[in-house]
Amino acid sequence: MIFETTIFTTVLINAIGYTGAYYLTHHRNPDEFGLGLPRSQIYSLPTELGLQYSNQKIAINNQEWLSTWLIKAKAPQGTVILFHGKESSKSSLLEQAQIFNSRNYDALLVDFRGSGNSSGHTSTVGFNEGEDVALAVNYIQQFNAEQPIILYGISMGSAAILKAIADNQVKPDGIILELPFTRLLNAVKNRLKIYNIPSFIMGELVVFWGGIQHRFDGFSHNPIDYTKTVDCPTLIFSGDRDPLVSVDEVKQMHNNLSAPKKLVVFPNAGHQLLVKVDRQLWQENVETLINEL
């Protein structure tokens, strides 16, 4: 009886872990019924902020693509490529792009695969998205992009930038990491806590089965390790009340960087767009980075 109960419990727990991994990494259209998070939507356009833009499609392969907006500056002095966080789209990057545009930077806003108007229905929390970063950088470089080139990412977008630098030989002139997580396992456990789901063991199972489903080792997907390969000036933004990543974790990531770096902690900020928390603090530090490049 004990043996049968142990087998049943093991199968049940793994089934829950598998289902949880599928739910967190697959997206369904809002009007569809099924397992997965609602697919992120385009909810605002650049013209609503007075920004003129063009739609650009970047091919992943013959069947897949990345949807982007290109916002040109009147007298460009550089280029910034912006990447959103999980369960979001390039619409979340408009206010930041407006600031860069005011500094005469061309801006390319990217929907990751499985988000916004890009193809696909899955997310790997920055792992495969690292390839999207590399594709966007290669795309913009084909058109003799204005130098310097800055990469800006939020949460998953930060992880994807670091993954691209570590594994895809992407070499930007500067990077801005907003709300970065340090280790996928920690991020998953903290997200489970938000859902009031016990994270012990379940976090490991979600990472394990997510890796099986998407064919990568989730336990080695650790942006804190990728930072060791960064050789350009880096600005990190963190919120002191972020429930997904503690400031202590972000400080460890900051300490791993050997290039010029700066960590800015926003008071009373959670896991949210920090430009909306304190636009002046955000802009001042971004301008400092720009001026130093």
Element layout with pairings:
Layout: H1 2-25, E1 27-28, E2 37-38, E3 54-59, E4 65-71, E5 78-83, H2 94-102, E6 105-110, H3 129-141, E7 149-154, H4 156-167, E8 174-178, H5 184-194, H6 202-214, H7 223-226, E9 234-239, H8 247-256, E10 261-266, H9 274-277, H10 279-292
Parallel strand pairs: 1-2, 5-6, 5-7, 7-8, 8-9, 9-10
Antiparallel strand pairs: 3-4, 4-6
Helix pairs in contact: 1-6, 3-4, 5-6
Descriptive keywords:
alpha/beta; single chain; 10 strands; 2 domains; 18% strand; 293 residues
User: Can you say what the CATH homologous superfamily of the largest domain is?
Assistant: Alpha/Beta hydrolase fold, catalytic domain
Q: What is the helix tally?
A: 10
Strands ordered across the widest β-sheet = 3-4-6-5-7-8-9-10
What percent of residues adopt helix (DSSP H or I)? 25-40%
* Main beta-sheet annotation: 8 strands, mixed
Query: Cα-atom Rg, whole angstroms?
Result: 19 Å
Q: What is the residue-mean pLDDT, rounded to a whole number?
A: 95
Shape: globular
| Series of H and E elements | HEEEEEHEHEHEHHHEHEHH
Judged by helices, strands and strand pairing, the structural class is alpha/beta
In percent, how much strand structure appears in the residues? Answer: 15-25%
CATH topology of the largest domain: Rossmann fold
How many strand elements? 10
What are the low-pLDDT stretches, counting only 5+ consecutive residues below 50? Answer: none
Return the domain count: 2
CATH-level-2 architecture of the largest domain:
3-Layer(aba) Sandwich
